[in-house]
Write a structure and sequence with these properties.
By secondary structure, this protein is of the alpha/beta class. The chain is built from 5 helices and 5 strands, in the order E-E-E-H-E-H-E-H-H-H. The protein has a 5-stranded mixed β-sheet.
Length: 161
């Protein structure tokens, strides 16, 4: 199964595409979508949606996974994240992709074995889980891959999102 994982962010959105049978995972592609804070939020959202459509067209995932919105002390940041996530969910649904949604703790538990793991621990585990020679350069892309791996694992266990 080919899975697209997305780590939503209004400045940087990470994405990762893996092939998985639920036990073994193989990296297909990982990257980031950068937007400029100098342009309006609606333009940034369009850029994210446009690039995500390109990723879907190129890599043809069977399904997708995104991280749930987490609590933020900064209301403006939380609203921007929710808007970005809304665009991502729209694009995924518009392409007919079934979407799994997971809490940050569930993703960390799935990848690291500890739901309160630090971001660096997740980034450290991804190369091992994907049998890579080196680290994923971007923490945002690594987080997106973690979401995809979490989805693959949960599907194989028969656990819904």
């Amino acid at each position: 199964m080919r899975i697209l994982g997305v780590d939503c962010g209004s400045r940087i959105t990470g994405y990762g595409v893996i092939e998985s049978d639920g036990l073994r995972h193989r990296l297909i592609e990982a990257g980031t979508i950068h937007t400029s804070e100098r342009v309006s939020m609606e333009q940034r959202l369009c850029s994210i949606g446009r690039r995500l459509r390109e990723v879907i067209a190129e890599f043809k995932p069977d399904c997708a996974a995104v991280e749930d919105v987490f609590f933020s002390a900064n209301a403006r940041s939380a609203i921007k994240l929710a808007e970005t996530r809304g665009v991502v969910l729209f694009v995924l649904a518009d392409h007919g992709l079934a979407v799994g949604e997971y809490s940050p703790a569930t993703v960390k538990q799935s990848v690291v074995g500890y739901g309160k793991a630090e971001k660096g621990q997740v980034q450290f585990m991804i190369p091992s889980l994907l049998d890579l020679d080196g680290p994923i350069a971007s923490a945002d892309a690594a987080d997106a891959l973690a979401v995809a791996i979490c989805h693959a694992t949960r599907i194989s266990l028969g656990v819904s999102s």
